[in-house]
Amino acid sequence: MVMKEISNRRSVREYRDKAVAEKDIVEIIKAGQFAPTARHNQAVEFVVVKNQKIKDKIFEIVGQEFVKEAPVLIVPVTDKTKTNCSVQDLSVASENMFLQATALGLGTVWKALKTEFAELEEIKKLLGIPEQFTAINIIPLGYPEEKPVPHKVIDFDAGKIHKEKW
User: Fold this and answer.
1) Domain boundaries defined on the chain
2) Which residues pair with 46 in a beta bridge?
3) Which of 12, 49, 103, 133 sees the fewest Cβ atoms within 10 Å?
4) 37: closest CA among 90, 1, 102, 74?
5) How many helices (H) does the chain have, and how many strands (E)?
6) Do residues 141 and 101 touch, judged by C-beta distance below 8 A?
7) Distance between CA atoms of 49 and 32, rounded to whole angstroms?
8) Phi and psi of 16, rounded to 5°?
């Protein structure tokens, strides 16, 4: 049941020094690839980074420790010439990946790429991402240092549901 993964998925910023199996990385990317895209464009692709020197350079760009400490970084990208819904396509793919990672006992966090600070362009240059592609986030991936506390049923707020109109 997917609610289990939704409840258990929490942001993880501290990772154990343990490699992530290649088969698990592929399963997580498969979940991202199977996400819906605008007009079924299927333009989302994935850059996987495990090399520590590259992760260190990414840290220099984005300034958050967890990007160099996570065993794996995945950068979902999409071809802007094939979709006019880049943010939506990348967001849905990322969420699918988060849920699959959770199901596999792995942790993730959304690391936004801020265009106003030129992070996106610097990351694209570093990773050799072609000009027509864009990204909105980096997904650090690894085994959580500590098991995150799941959401509780009591956290659900039915008062945020508006029927028919506000």
Assistant:
1) 2-144
2) 76
3) 103
4) 90
5) 6, 6
6) yes
7) 16
8) -75, 155
Listed in sequence order, the residues at least 6 apart from 73 whose beta carbon sits closer than 8 Å to its beta carbon are 48, 49, 50, 55, 58, 67, 138, 139, 140, 141
Tokens (6 digits) for 36? 């819906």
Pairing of β 44-49 and β 72-79:
antiparallel
The radius of gyration of the chain from alpha carbons, rounded to an integer in Å, stands at 17
Q: How far is CA 148 from CA 16, 104, 109, 114, in A?
A: 13, 14, 12, 26
Q: pLDDT at residue 144 above 90?
A: yes
Q: What does the alpha-carbon distance between residue 68 and residue 134 come to, in Å, rounded to a whole number?
A: 22
Question: In what helix (H) or strand (E) does residue 79 lie, and over which residues does it extend?
Answer: strand 72-79
- Helices marked H in the chain: 2-8, 22-33, 52-62, 66-69, 86-103, 119-127
Structure-token match 């464009």, residue found: 41
Each residue's pLDDT tens digit, 54-89: 999 999 999 999 999 999 999 999 999 999 999 999
Architecture category of domain 2-144 in CATH: 3-Layer(aba) Sandwich (3.40)
Record the pTM: 0.95
pLDDT at residue 149, rounded to an integer: 87
**Which helix or strand (DSSP H or E) is residue 47 part of?**
strand 44-49
- Both tokens of residue 103? 């199901």
